[in-house]
Amino acid sequence: MKILITGAYGQLGNEIKVLSEKYSAWEFIFTDVDSLDITNKNAVADFFQKTKPDFIVNCAAYTAVDRAETEVETATKINATAPGILANAASEISAKIIHISTDYVFSGEAFLPLSEEEPVKPTGIYGKTKLEGEKNCIKENPESVIIRTSWLYSAFGNNFVKTMLRLGKERDALKVVFDQIGTPTYAGDLAAAILSIIEIAETEPVNFVSGIYHYSNEGVASWFDFSKAVFEISGLNCKVSPVLSKEFPTPAKRPSYSVLNKSKIRNTFALEIPYWKDSLEVCMNKIEK
């Protein structure tokens, strides 16, 4: 098995790189913007023809949610156009593709965990371009697997956990919004799930079922709850006060509710999904080391 990873410098790409050491029988090709321009159709086609991967995992994305409101062209190229290019090139060499998407494809107005069949209605450029990327991926390669995730964090890169740890050391008190509800997702768990799905495709190809799936850790939290957990685990003595989102206006609207229903991915691929607080502790131990 030869597996090509795009967005290798990101949180998820780095977590896959760590876990790849356990899969000595597989060959991994890690790429990012400096080695493969995924927005260039000819470059992608040439790269795929030369390397002949069996699997492509597209972790690359434009994730600057607020900046996307003004950098529409860049967000569109990376989030919407590139997935179609990758899916098309994968189809040409009979490779399978797993594309990572987001909870931002929903309006955020739900009040029950969101299944894959829920109507999509993104409110900002980031969500709109990611939804377009899903559609382009499926259009160019109907055998695609799309995995929507939420509130991703890791020992790698910049994320909410690292920001809270930094601010907790700098300040005695913080205000964090409590009216945005979702589930924190440890990128290491998502990486493990992706590699499990690829393993199924290798050993039991009939059980590799294409389609859209949701993956986050189990449980529910607000950003306020998330920050409180970070400080409790770290032992930082920083007081956190809950505030409404309107006290921190942003160019792009955040979903008020984006808890994902994981039943489909859990049942289809027999995955065990950890509770978010347990995984947060695992990640924070890695950050400390």
Description:
A 6-stranded parallel beta sheet has the order 2-1-3-4-5-10, with helices on both faces. 41% of the residues lie in helices and 16% in strands. Helix 3 (72-92) links the parallel strand 3 (55-58) and strand 4 (96-102). It is globular, with a radius of gyration of 19 Å. With 289 residues, the protein is α/β, with parallel strands linked by helices. The model has no long low-confidence stretch (mean pLDDT 96). The chain has one domain (2-159, 184-216, 260-276): NAD(P)-binding Rossmann-like Domain (Rossmann fold, 3-Layer(aba) Sandwich). The longest helix is centred in the N-terminal third of the chain and has 21 residues, at 72-92. Helix 1 packs across helix 6, helix 5 packs across helix 7 and helix 7 (223-234) crosses helix 9 (276-288). It contains 9 helices and 12 strands.
Q: Element order, helices and strands?
A: EHEHEHEHEEHEEEHEEHEHH
Measured as a percent range, the helix fraction is: 40-55%
By CATH, the topology is Rossmann fold
Q: What's the Cα radius of gyration? A: 19 Å
Outline: globular
Taking pLDDT < 50 over at least 5 consecutive residues as the criterion, the unreliable ranges are: none
> How many helices in DSSP terms?
9
* The CATH fourth-level homologous superfamily: NAD(P)-binding Rossmann-like Domain
What structural category arises from helix and sheet content? Answer: alpha/beta
- CATH C-level class is Alpha Beta
Strand percent estimate: 15-25%
**Total separate domains:** 1
GO molecular function: dTDP-4-dehydrorhamnose reductase activity
Keywords: NADP, Oxidoreductase
EC number: 1.1.1.133
Catalytic activity: dTDP-beta-L-rhamnose + NADP(+) = dTDP-4-dehydro-beta-L-rhamnose + NADPH + H(+)
